[in-house]
Structures
1.
Amino acid sequence: MKLIRNSRFSVASLFSINGAVFGIWASRIPAISSGHDLSPASFGVLLFLAAAAAITAFSVFGRAADNYGASVITKRASIFNSVILVMVAFAPSVWILAVALIFFGIIHGGMDVSMNAWAAEVERKNERPLMSSFHAMWSLGAGVGAGSGFLLATYSVGVPMHFTISSIVILVFTLVIVAIPYQTVQSIQHKNKPIYILPKGPLLVVTIVAFCASLSEGAVADWSAIFLVSVSSVSDGNAALGYTMFSFCMLIMRLAGDKVVLKIGPSKTARYSGLVAMIGALILTIFDTFIPILIGFGLIGLGIAVIIPLAFSRAANDKTMSQGSAIASVATLGYGGMLIGPLLIGFIAEATSIKTSFLIFPILAFIIIILSKHLSIKSQ
């Protein structure tokens, strides 16, 4: 029983640390972009490189999680994850920044797959839904990270100092967590199979749903601050509140998500979540003032909060693929939204306006509503 509690604590902690790294990065995007004098399209290309690196790493880390154990791969990746912010902060040129973001994508994305595979193991050992609560810890970490960006940007603390202090603190916590023992699960029978296997049938539909949710999540993370600065003319400090609100609402929903799924099932949960996200997206397209836009970001956070956890739980229990490979396949195509989304929004914003580019959000929410029934394990 103690081992199960320890494993839940370890997984939850590493989810929160992974989220904190992302939230810290996302909160200082305007400062990093302006510091390198990047246009929306140019910055979109850099985000594209980071997302492409992450997606390339998904299958490799998924196979490694099968072969060597998800906990082993997650712990090793978490050490590198602790220091990648420093590389981004001290990049002296756009080219070095591009390299730093590629490395960021590889480590951060690879850890995402392996820690979800580990979370699925712990969920099965507990014999009840837990994935949403683990992702809640990611949202908590992201919210705290984004909040630190708001606080330090308000007091004019530079990105290098902010990222250096954050990396030191995160590394110390990470070293404590990785020392907690866990008996990992290996699936060596999958060693000779292709590294990447395309999802088929219902799992492919699950991937499309994950794609819509990840595109929304990635776009909010990468463009919410710039959206607020452009549309509402707020300061960089207040602009960071957009992603903070989004992350906080995701946290609240994910904390309640396991109970909701247990009560009404994954399909209905996804359907109602998509409706909430659509309402939030419409608010963004209608209003130009600060408070309504914050509410819109919050509703999108509530709406897509449980979609990715549901997709990963469904993938981990697929009958046709190993756990690591199934999660990696859904992540690779599903998180393709994070590859296409920032780039797409950047080019649309360049050609029209940042507000016009956000019209994509209600469309994504509608697709989630239509395909929600496939998130049930019974759909296999």
2.
Amino acid sequence: MQYSTIFKKIERLILTSKNIVLTTHLIPDGDAIGSELAFYYYLKAKNKNVNIINHSPTPDNYKFLDSKNVIKIFSEDIVKNIELIEKSDLIFLLDTNEYNRTKGLSEYLTKSKAKKICIDHHLGFNKNFFDIYLSDTTVPATAILVYKLIKNDNPKYINKKVAINLYAAIMTDTGSFRFPRTTAETFLISADLINRGADPVVIYEETYNKLRKEKIKLLGKFIDSLTFHSKNSLAIGIITQKDLKEHNSDAQDLEGFSTLIMSINKIKMGIVIVEMKNDIKCSFRSKGNLNVRNFAKYFGGGGHKNAAGATFPLQNPYHLKRKLINHYNKFFTK
């Protein structure tokens, strides 16, 4: 896909803007954090006043990317963060195309008079919500688009810090280069980032090989909860509020659980049900042509063809599980 016209429009807005805010979806993953931080250092190099404001704290395994602690958490200083949003003249929404995925920030982002730009690779969007919409659902990570945008401006801006964050983002969102949409271009871009200072060994170690013992114990609880349905084509695991409290954990510790389900032989779809304090979050994963985005959309959710999610009102998670099993049987029988 050719982006040159959109790149020029974004570069012009950056040039004429002074105060810029970056944000992403709640419970940010590697692509969200890496894209934000890479873009942050790019904009700082252009002498812009930049703030990253997120709804959720940075997951422990991505904190090494933010060694300078530049990411602000909205709830930690609501008054100050609202002021930063209101004073901004340009806002970037990265790795999501829905304001409601920013939770606490959503109201203030939509009311802001700043120009708004979305850079994302997910399906489903409304262009009317943004002044510029840079989207490509064929790329495996939002970081690919960020890389191309920065390189189009000037490759010199892809310094070591930018390269490390972009590589981490691409590595995690491709499942270490094994998910669909991982192409030759993905490897070429990653190679360029390595040449510019990203160390693939260190980044992998920091991301995946420094798990807290609480997460390992929670994973054991999750594995015990797994049940198999529809001729073993569907696997479902549940984590309750009690589980999270007992293991001193939160939602960020659940990253990778859905990937584990999909490593089980003959499984076509996996569901992770998580009982939060105020609602229930479900992650859906699938293989091949099984479109879980449409499955999630039925419940008001969304995402990719093989990776999606939805949020449900607080209820008994085991009752919700039965609803999901029934819908699976109806939905995929069609």
